Automatic annotation (TrEMBL):
<keyword id="KW-0804">Transcription</keyword>
<keyword id="KW-0238">DNA-binding</keyword>
<protein>
    <submittedName>
        <fullName>Winged helix-turn-helix transcriptional regulator</fullName>
    </submittedName>
</protein>
<dbReference type="InterPro" id="IPR036390">
    <property type="entry name" value="WH_DNA-bd_sf"/>
</dbReference>
<keyword id="KW-0805">Transcription regulation</keyword>
<dbReference type="InterPro" id="IPR036388">
    <property type="entry name" value="WH-like_DNA-bd_sf"/>
</dbReference>
<dbReference type="Pfam" id="PF01638">
    <property type="entry name" value="HxlR"/>
</dbReference>
<feature type="domain" description="HTH hxlR-type">
    <location>
        <begin position="16"/>
        <end position="119"/>
    </location>
</feature>
<dbReference type="InterPro" id="IPR002577">
    <property type="entry name" value="HTH_HxlR"/>
</dbReference>
Length: 121
């Protein structure tokens, strides 16, 4: 996580484009309405497709499937197929996917404060 002192040092050394590019890369991977809710759902443990569909309000099966494929391509989610009858498919966060937890916690805190601020006005 970049701390304020590191950002100040980076700003001294280079243009803002060197800060913008990594942020844009992160937003590209996490873009859309559903990726973060899926990651949050999986941060509470491994889930089957239908479990996630029930936990995430208003997500369609088609969108859940699409987003899971993209998260898997970006190595944030792992899909495991069990050789059973019927076939069981389970999704989990990879170790790499778990590295998003601090960022999600900060977004959560910011979101709470933002909601309070808007309600107070």
């Amino acid at each position: 996580m970049i701390v304020k002192e590191e950002v100040k040092e980076i700003k001294k050394e280079c243009t803002c484009t060197k800060i913008i590019q990594p942020v844009q890369d992160a937003l590209y991977v996490l873009s859309g309405k559903w990726k973060l809710p899926i990651i949050i759902s999986l941060s509470y443990g491994n889930k089957r497709f239908s479990e996630m569909g029930r936990e995430i309000p208003k997500i369609t099966d088609r969108m859940l499937s699409k987003e899971l494929r993209e998260l898997e391509m970006n190595q944030l989610v792992q899909r495991k197929v069990y050789d059973s009858v019927p076939v069981v498919v389970e999704y989990s966060l990879t170790e790499y996917g778990k590295t998003l937890n601090p960022a999600i916690e900060e977004l959560y805190k910011w979101g709470l404060e933002h909601r309070k601020r808007l309600i107070e006005e």
